[in-house]
Amino acid sequence: MRASSTLTVATWNINSVRLRQGLLERFVLEHEPDIVCLQETKCQNGQFPAAPFRKLGYEHIALNGQKGYHGVATLSRLPLAQIQCRSFCGIGDSRHVECVVEIAGRRIRLHNFYVPAGGDEPDRDVNPKFAHKLDFLEEMRCVTTDAGTHDAALLVGDLNIAPLENDVWSHRQLLKVVSHTPVETETLEDLRRKAGWTDLMRTRIPPEEKLYTWWSYRARDWQASNRGRRLDHIWGTPNLVSPMSDLRVLTQARGWPKPSDHVPVIARFALGA
DNA sequence: ATGACGATCCCAGATCGA
Question: How far apart, in whole angstroms, are the C-alpha atoms of residue A266 and residue A83?
Answer without folding.
Answer: 22
